[in-house]
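Two proteins were folded this term; both appear here.
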Amino acid sequence: MMNQMATMSTRFKARITGGVYLLYFLTAVLGKLITDRGLVVYGSAVSLSSTAAYIAVTLLFYYLFRPVNKSLALLAALLSLLGCANDLLSLFHLAPVQVNSLAFFGPFDILIGYLILRSTFLPRILGGLMVLAGLGWLIFLALPPANGLVAYIEVLGFVAEAALMLWLLVMGVNDQRWEAQATPAGKAEHRVPERANI
């Protein structure tokens, strides 16, 4: 099994990431719909599976973005895992302090967006959208619920994450550029032009 994973192309692994991301979207929406209908136990079970899917997405993102910047990819993964842990504790009413998980997922989205912007294997527009979504989630935390901006922020967050999910699912990543960025020589080549532009 591990040998098969090692021989898969990065494009295919990115498509798997997109598939798991889609699973997260579907289970998150289904969990919300079930809970809103008063079936809290069933909604909680589906929410648990959506959190498990997001943990998998987080780990797959770490693999995907570590060639860009291993430290930032690790920090993003840790933030997302903390957000998932907070969701799980809240789901079972075990959280010692009530913290909105967007306090973790907002910075996570910003870091993923930055890593996409710095990458050579994904379109930069996806990175820009993710940065805006992350900033939006942080603004969302500071706004009163009745504020008219809340709906726009939610739409922006959904569009950014859905666009990234669909791109990964349909297109994957550029294998050659990912491999080039994963090598030390590729990282050096990627930095030189940027220094020249300063």
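Next, the second protein.
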Amino acid sequence: MLAQLLRGLYLFQMLLGGLLGAWLAAPLTHQDGSALAWLLVPLGALGLPLLLQFLTMIALVLRARDGGPLSDWWRAFWGEYFAAIAIFMLRQPWPRRASEVLLPLPGAPNPIGAAPMPVLLVHGFICNHRVWDDVAAALRRAGHPVLAIDLEPLFTSIDDYAEPIELAADKLLACTGARQLALVGHSMGGLAIRAWLRAHGSGRVAKIITLGSPHQGTHIVKALITANGEQMLWRSAWLQALQDSEKPATRHLMQIALSRQDNVVYPQHEQVLSDASVTEFSGLGHLQLCLNPAVINWLVQQLASHQSDPATGKPV
């Protein structure tokens, strides 16, 4: 569904940009007879989507900035702009086969007496499984079986995502023969994992890692009227109830990663949970947490310590 929406959106923007280019080219061609002016048509078709993405990024960064070194925000701005182009324009409109367990790549480590933990990847709001392309490749190189799912419908309650996560967890465990798995969530995906934990418990969970998740909510969704948008409001009643349902033992399974320059989830420094470990990154925007090599290497390292015993399925 998201892929179709994005393809339609960018097609509309390209048509609009092409028409604008033609409108500018027509009088120029009439004046000097040169056909070079018609290059404005493809330039407009390509340039308008890029310009709109640029302006959107400026608005997001200006709204989210709460101090800190300007150099870090400048670095995050450009990194996030190119990340948005890669994810929203080049990847997500063109989905691959979702709900397919990807096995480790040939040549991946295979420790004697231990098996790398299978990993379930859960994307965030207005995203699909292709946000995980770089993370999934790194995990497979490290020997982990990986499953990246799509959460649909796009604008339902976060609680409704517990069931597709449950089905995906069962599929991943059945395919690999493991008894426990790790879950990684980006943005709203971290909340969806916690909603799944509330519904189904943590008995099969070895570790949970969240990247840029609005654990305390975010001010950016004030204008959203969707069910999941309202749930992600800053310190919403839904978030409070979710926190009240969690025990310290569950929180000990969690590793939270956040960026001080997150342009979507803010206040950034308050996106923590008691009893959960926290790692902070600087100079990175919201989408960059799924693309940045340092974050991905950190993620792989966190999961490297959670190999499982093939006989019992428990961490070793």
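Residues 2-32 form the longest helix (31 residues). Residues 1-64 form one domain. These notes refer to the second protein only.
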